[in-house]
Queue: 2 jobs
Job 1
Amino acid sequence: MARFMDVHHDMQGITAEQLHQAHQADLAVEGEEGVHFESAWADPESGTVYCLSEGPSAEAVQRVHERTGHKAAEIHPVPLSV
Amino acid sequence: MARFMDVHHDMQGITAEQLHQAHQADLAVEGEEGVHFESAWADPESGTVYCLSEGPSAEAVQRVHERTGHKAAEIHPVPLSV
């Protein structure tokens, strides 16, 4: 298992409710890909959303996001944290 | 107070010890700017580092990073989180 930070760039105007719903959608299917989404942070003005997850690969993280309709623009492994 | 995610793009090869030292340097001066750095995550391969903080403004967050020698490339307010 590894940790990943993914980034979405096209979510201008996202609301708290929409972020919650998107996260819940990911949580509902993540287990089938061996992924867990821990947290997400959104900047509605620029449309940027950051998601922190754990999973077997970046591809598995992306599959969850694709299945729930919000493919990530970038996914970075983040093996280091403080 | 607001929450911010900032991004650094030029930290290829960063080690766990270097990330720890950079974070400790930020913690040592952040109070003078009313900022608190909560967490940071690093991808040594691409050189990307994400820092999550709270503070009065993006400018205050940047001042801390500038004072400790690692100016952020982007700073986004992230008022929404899950």
Job 2
Amino acid sequence: MFLGNFLTDTETVAVAACFFGKQRLEYLLELFGIYARPRIGYFYQDVPVKKETLRELVDLARNSASASNRQALKFILSWEPEKNAKIFPLIGFAAQLRDWGGPFDGERPAAYIIILLDTEIAKQTGADTGIAAQTILLGAVEKGLGGCMHGSAKKPEMMQALNIPAKYEIQLVISLGKPKEQVVVEKVGPDGKTAYWRDEKQVHHVPKRSLEEIIIG
Amino acid sequence: MFLGNFLTDTETVAVAACFFGKQRLEYLLELFGIYARPRIGYFYQDVPVKKETLRELVDLARNSASASNRQALKFILSWEPEKNAKIFPLIGFAAQLRDWGGPFDGERPAAYIIILLDTEIAKQTGADTGIAAQTILLGAVEKGLGGCMHGSAKKPEMMQALNIPAKYEIQLVISLGKPKEQVVVEKVGPDGKTAYWRDEKQVHHVPKRSLEEIIIG
């Protein structure tokens, strides 16, 4: 199926020709590959992310699937240094890199999207949080950004710091910015360890299980 | 940012020209839009989905983010009518369409991907299930397929019917096939109701909250 499937017939022919026979999925794969890269995230902190960009990313999530279509997720955007400074110390970064104290000032995220559950709409999010987060990060990569999902956060402190009403529950924090880090996705080695690691050149390595290991039937 | 960012410089020029200045994100938006459509799913059941296609979809999920990179999700594929027939009666379809008894024989999914948690690796999936499911469905749309995430399933019966070892927990079932249904994403009306519905022409309507309603700060 070619990219052209989303275009008019005339455009299809042109685009198909341009793609030299490559299927769009290959580009998606590249996209996902790139998405996988800026997982941990240190950034060019001085490259700002616009409010409008964050709104566009949430709009992608808005149009995605939701359990029973209840749409119980709400979002808080942060793109200004003052608000960012409130959020940064309350989220966990790269817990498996114990020797790393970063990201350091100047390499911190330039923006955040906080995903909340509106408990007046639903008591749990099911798969909705992951659907929204993946959609947002995919869109972010598309915009030349990278990011990280932070499940680890000091949630009570964040509720207070941002004056979030008690009816909301923080689900996930997404950090965003222009990625500075180099990341390599590779196979899990014979020791079976999946922990990510950094080499001496500060390249971030992410070992992924094989397709054979994860398809069980 | 143009699609061309993932191509060589020569390809970039050609593709950028073909796209008439459209940004790739616009195509992603269309893609997500299309993805949102075949949400409920009745299908051209006689159009098969190949095993290799399902493997490619899982491979997209495999390369995506995972909490602490533990990769505790495992997958079962089904593309043969016999196995499909075991799965179909054990999943819930469109609970909000109470008068609909379908999808009926001939319009049922042609394939399934069952997402499991390997409890020997992790005790919960966090956002991983949603990340994987969204990734798979996005890839499916790319391949001219559509699908639905089924959180509602008779899980003990499915464990038994498919001889799934007890260390796995069923998280979500994704049905797949060539979509037959017409779906429209629209605004939530003044009554605030988000339940999806079908009109007399069997067009499926999915009301989505506005961006203003879901961005709270």
